[in-house]
Amino acid sequence: MSSVALVTGASRGIGRAIALRLAAEGFAVGVNYASSSEKADAVVAEIVASGGNAFAVQADVADADAVTAMFASVVDALGPVEVLVNNAGITDDGLLLRMSAEQWDSVVNTNLRSVFLCTKAALRSMLRARTGRVINISSVSGISGNPGQGNYAASKAGIVGFTKSIAKEVGSRGITVNAIAPGFIQTDMTEALGGEVIEAASEHIALGRLGLPEEVASAVSYLASEGASYITGQTIVVDGGLAL
């Protein structure tokens, strides 16, 4: 029986790459999505076509009842979640004086409240099994800040603090909790910014280019592996040297 991984926000971008990579490593993968069932089904189809096992599950991961239902569905379809990747996230940028309370709440709820809800749900079975991996996707914005992203940076910095705290809570049960802080990664979201913006951003990256979703997925794969069994409470920066 395959180990089970659940990836939130896995229908596109970094989440999609993580789901595909974990499936390639032999995990049965729960592919969570918020609204795009077509894209999530395409990820599942790609995994199945490669001989893997996957299951698409819709849920607003900022909603407590939806998260409870999501975990029940994944357990029924695949089994208890042994690796949780909290990847779901959104942006709604704006300078602080122009930022509405709704902009703040939507970003913080989707990016940070979801990590609280999903981790809490996953830990119930992990604690019984005395093993498990929680991998939270933060951002370099949460480490160094970014103008116009007060809500996003706060949510991603919150993930770093949450990761350290929960790592201390559950370490004695053999569960590791780590975070990954990606930099400028090549996704649909960044492509929409246009060539000039991407070129300007690349000038501030030591490696001189945007990262690939697969490069973030490689870090997730490592943290999910036995080779990372003595790493917990850490934030691994995958940014090509952007935050140096």
Keywords:
single chain; alpha/beta; 244 residues; 7 strands; 9 helices; 7-stranded parallel beta sheet
Describe, in plain words, how this protein is organized in 3D.
By secondary structure, the chain is α/β, with parallel strands linked by helices. The protein has helices at residues 13-24, 37-49, 64-77, 101-129, 141-144, 150-170, 188-191, 195-202, 213-223; strands spanning 4-7, 28-33, 54-58, 83-86, 132-137, 175-182, 235-238. A seven-stranded parallel sheet has the order 3-2-1-4-5-6-7, sandwiched between helices. α4 packs parallel to α6 (150-170). It is globular, with a radius of gyration of 17 Å. The model has no long low-confidence stretch (mean pLDDT 96).
User: What is the number of strand segments?
Assistant: 7
Averaged pLDDT, please?
A: 96
Can you tell me the overall shape? globular
Number of helices: 9
- End-to-end gap: 43 Å
Question: Topology of this protein?
Answer:
Blueprint: E1 4-7, H1 13-24, E2 28-33, H2 37-49, E3 54-58, H3 64-77, E4 83-86, H4 101-129, E5 132-137, H5 141-144, H6 150-170, E6 175-182, H7 188-191, H8 195-202, H9 213-223, E7 235-238
Parallel strand pairs: 1-2, 1-4, 2-3, 4-5, 5-6, 6-7
Helix pairs in contact: 1-2, 1-9, 3-4, 4-6
